[in-house]
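Escalated from tier 1: protoporphyrin IX containing FE holo job.
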Amino acid sequence: MRESGAAFFTSLTLHSLAMAFVVGINLAIAFRLVGFAPKLPIAPLTRFYPLHWYCAVLILVSGLALLLAYPAKALTNEVFYLKLTALSIGLLISKRFQYTLSNLPEDEPVQNDHKQLAYLSLVVWATTICAGRFLAYTHNVLLASRFY
Ligand code: HEM
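Tier 2 regenerated the structure:
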């Protein structure tokens, strides 16, 4: 993974493309729940979740490939654990929204707990993206040995 530039950059590209779908779908639903585009029905938005979960698997696979390239670099960096915590909270909220919003009647107002979860979703996905980007600048170790 480290020696072959093509392998590393293909993983990084897949990682970025897949996160565009995962984070994009979560942000669109969260912005709708906090009040943007009030005329847009909410339940049909949940039809994007199957694509969201496919891309989540792609992010995990490409993320593990990037991790394999420089395991010590990420595993010794607190920012990496902040990122994994934020994205785990984000995916738990996605699961909750997928089940509770898919049958929401069009004229039903957004419940308060959904609105609060949507604000939290906006914060955790912004944190995940920023932490992911800063991984490259915040590491103390690049390689712990000749191999990893
Ligand atoms: C939805 C979830 C995720 C998002 C939004 C995300 C976001 C990001 C971003 C923005 C970058 C920087 C890309 C760049 O340099 O152009 C990145 C890099 C990275 N991500 Fe993720 N990521 C996610 C999941 C994961 C997972 C699950 C893992 C590992 C199991 C992971 C491991 C990494 C690694 C190792 C890097 C490379 C850091 C470096 O430059 O050394 N990511 N991620």
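Residues 5-147 form one domain.
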